[in-house]
Amino acid sequence: FSGRGGESGPGHVSSFGASATAKISVDASLAGAIIGKGGVSSKQICRQTGAKLSIQDHERDPNLKNIELEGTFEQINEASVMVRELIGRLNSAASRRPPGGGGGKPHPGSNFKTKMCERFAKGNCTFGDRCHFAHGEAELRRSGVA
């Protein structure tokens, strides 16, 4: 992840209850999993920390997404820790998968992972690893290749 840019509203950094925002840039392929099926992961982070979480397109790099956190400094710090822990779990789960993405081989002639997932690009694919569309160039299969 690249850095966080904390932008505070009026007031001093040390002022109690001051509102702030922070950005965490992550690989775009992680955005759907950070949201979770039906938004379960992002809702849990918001509920437990009180911070507001949103996922936006990165300003310059289409392969990245910005996780934007809004709330008090304490809420943002807590939410940031939870997001980073979630990413760590996702990365360790991905490293345990067999090469080729797991999930079995697609049937010859199937369209499995031959197109980019439009919902994922918008940050709202709820299928995660079970999605039949590619969540990045690395998952994309060329048509006609079995």
Automatic annotation (TrEMBL):
Gene3D superfamilies: K Homology domain, type 1, Zinc finger, CCCH-type. Residues 92-111 are annotated as: Disordered. This is C3H1-type domain-containing protein. GO terms for molecular function: DNA binding; mRNA binding; zinc ion binding. A zinc finger (C3H1-type) spans 111-138. InterPro entries: KH_dom, KH_dom_type_1, KH_dom_type_1_sf, ZFP36-like, Znf_CCCH, Znf_CCCH_sf. Residues 111-138 form the C3H1-type domain. The keyword Repeat applies. SUPFAM superfamilies: CCCH zinc finger, Eukaryotic type KH-domain (KH-domain type I). It comes from Brassica cretica. Signal peptide: none annotated. Keywords: DNA-binding, Metal-binding, Repeat, RNA-binding, Zinc, Zinc-finger. It comes from the Eukaryota. GO terms for biological process: regulation of DNA-templated transcription.
